[in-house]
């Protein structure tokens, strides 16, 4: 099966669909890197620093892969990277300022939204995009590892966990939709 086998008028072409995939994933991984930088700014020197650095290193690998794909495939990156630069750091720092549990709650919420997003991308990409699909599958597994780290580190005990989680997930879903196109 190839990417976008049944195309209707107005649907993105296979090239446009792949470009959107790479664009939004590059933006998301950039935002994730900045979230962890914000968390580290607040939690440096704590027992959680090593965990955050581990997750940040994986996000950097994801970002490096999508940066390479942006260049190789000549995909226009999102125009919102300056916004992601500030918003990602602010989200990480603000949640970490509430304590490590809130930082872990942020991680869980973001990674659950990304899992859903990556899962949909895997289903949409055809065999003609096997390499891209493999990257997404690998990164999705690592994002789920990050979610599990957050849960193991008391994310659900954060103040107003459900409200915080719902707000962050909603923000992620909006960011995903916007970054695909802008």
Short description:
With 182 residues, the chain is mainly α. It has helices at 14-43, 49-72, 81-97, 100-124, 130-152, 161-181.
Keywords:
mainly alpha; 182 residues; elongated; single chain
Write up what this structure looks like.
- This protein has 182 residues and is mainly alpha-helical.
- It is built from six helices and no strands.
- The protein has helices at 14-43, 49-72, 81-97, 100-124, 130-152, 161-181.
- The longest helix is centred in the first third of the chain and has 30 residues, at 14-43.
**Unreliable residue runs:** none
- Based on secondary structure, the structural category is mainly alpha
> For the terminal residues, how far apart are their CA atoms?
28 Å
Q: Topology as H/E string?
A: HHHHHH
Percent helix: over 70%
| Biggest sheet character | none
Query: What's the number of helices?
Result: 6
Taking all Cα atoms into account, the compactness measure Rg is 16 Å
How much strand content do the residues show?
A: under 5%
Spatial shape: elongated
Mean pLDDT: 92
Number of E strands: 0
